[in-house]
Every structure is written in structure tokens, then in C-alpha cells.
Amino acid sequence: MLRSSKLQKEVMSVLLSIGFECEEEHQDPRTGYTIDIYCPPSSSSSSSSSSSSSSSSSSSSPVAIEVDGPSHFLHGTREASGSTVLKRRHLEAVGYRFISIPYWEWDALQGAEEQEKFMREKLK
């Protein structure tokens, strides 16, 4: 059974607040993977408004955002597990732009403003 983590729900909420239309727990038909947060090409509602280089890059490929909690890393390290690395490689191979949100980076952010800035940077 698939379920979103609290961390994943926080990331999704920030994406919606900055104008991205994304889908949680998206099943990719080509790979069989479930993507934590899927943003289709041109998912940003602001992609046509401001002169931002991020909007052109985010609109050209679908985006797979993986919200990586401790189970995605080797025990006691910040090194991604083999299955996490393999999933990233497979998704990139079929054309996704892959973005990882490690739990320790998200946890270090102080409030909504920092979270929004962090996600905008990741999506550039």
C-alpha cells in the first residue's frame, strides 16, 4: 500500500504554493516506478509570466521529485542506497528530470519562505 510521508506532503504543499501543478504517488507506466511527486512538462503556472530560466528548463521534461527519508540512504550515512540510485538512473533514462529532496536538507529549512526558495532553486 502506497502512502505519502509527512515530509512529502510538506514538499507538495510548497510546490502548490509556488504555482506548480503536480501529482503525488504517480505510477510511471514505462518503468513501473511510483514517483513521490510528478510534475508534467509545463506544470508551472508561472512559466509564461516571468523571465526566469527555471521555467524554460522545468517545462521541457517531466520532473520526478523524490522526497528521500532515512530509508533511502545507507545506514548512518548520507549515501543513497542502491535501489534509490537505480530508480534515479531508470527515471532519467526514460526522460525525467530527477530531483532528490533529502530529509536533512528539508529539515534544516526555517519556515515557508526558506522552503519556497529551496524548491525554486531545485526546480531551476
From TrEMBL:
<feature type="domain" description="RAP">
    <location>
        <begin position="63"/>
        <end position="121"/>
    </location>
</feature>
<dbReference type="GO" id="GO:0044528">
    <property type="term" value="P:regulation of mitochondrial mRNA stability"/>
</dbReference>
<dbReference type="Pfam" id="PF08373">
    <property type="entry name" value="RAP"/>
</dbReference>
<dbReference type="InterPro" id="IPR050870">
    <property type="entry name" value="FAST_kinase"/>
</dbReference>
<dbReference type="GO" id="GO:0000963">
    <property type="term" value="P:mitochondrial RNA processing"/>
</dbReference>
<dbReference type="GO" id="GO:0035770">
    <property type="term" value="C:ribonucleoprotein granule"/>
</dbReference>
<protein>
    <recommendedName>
        <fullName>RAP domain-containing protein</fullName>
    </recommendedName>
</protein>
<feature type="compositionally biased region" description="Low complexity">
    <location>
        <begin position="42"/>
        <end position="61"/>
    </location>
</feature>
<dbReference type="GO" id="GO:0005759">
    <property type="term" value="C:mitochondrial matrix"/>
</dbReference>
<dbReference type="GO" id="GO:0003723">
    <property type="term" value="F:RNA binding"/>
</dbReference>
<dbReference type="InterPro" id="IPR013584">
    <property type="entry name" value="RAP"/>
</dbReference>
<feature type="region of interest" description="Disordered">
    <location>
        <begin position="25"/>
        <end position="81"/>
    </location>
</feature>
